[in-house]
Amino acid sequence: MRKVILSLLIFMITITMVTGVFASIPKPSVPEFAVKLVDSSYDIPESSSIDPYTGQTITIPSRHVDNRTLEFTIKNQPFTSYHDANSGRDIRLYYNIQMRGHFEEDWIGLYYSGDYPEHSGSEYTKISIPLGSQSSTPLQWLPSDSDVQVDFRVEACIGYFYRTIDFGEAWRFDGEKSNWSSTQTITIPKANHTVVTPSSSVPSSHNPPCEPLRPVVLGWVGVVVVSLLVVVVVLLVVLVFLYRRR
Q1: What's the rounded Cα separation, in Å, for the pair 84 and 159?
Q2: Which of 129-138, 163-172, 192-201 is predicted most confidently?
Q3: Cα(111)–Cα(137) distance, rounded to whole angstroms?
């Protein structure tokens, strides 16, 4: 009987320690942000050169280089990264950005593989994402032959990323997340049809999409922990009662 009671006490201490790990991570505030289109496109006039092997004149037609980016400016909340002794992890503040077509319901994230942009440590965090084939985000799939309206929203995440092999290797996030910010809509004009993207701006590789990150709702964890503690207390009371009767 004493061994049973001792085991239950150890279980309660373990649950309390796990709860302490989660409780050490604060819940971030809802972020404030602005997004704007920055158009640095330019035209290259027609030019000509002499083929060094044939002596013929080679004419290079004029062309338009599409060099547009979306610039996100997020107002930072007070936060300093720290090492959590309970979890053994570095706790940082990240930002997650989602987008959708203005006339659809489903949202899609711009980031995969644990590459969320991190809090800059200054008053604002600025994130610049190119459009079109220069982008390694879903923004590369936006229609270019017409004006489009795109919705954006941002959430703040305090915690850490780790690898998991559940359903294939992927990145997961543990920590606290804010509620989503208000939605901002931006209109992106159609691209010039003689678009040439700068080769120096094209990423050399693209990260393959991983599974969406699971949201960690610590309120739910708290409910489970409290329920387990209640069950353990009831069991202890019953065991002590039976022990005294014997």
Answers
A1: 10
A2: 129-138
A3: 7
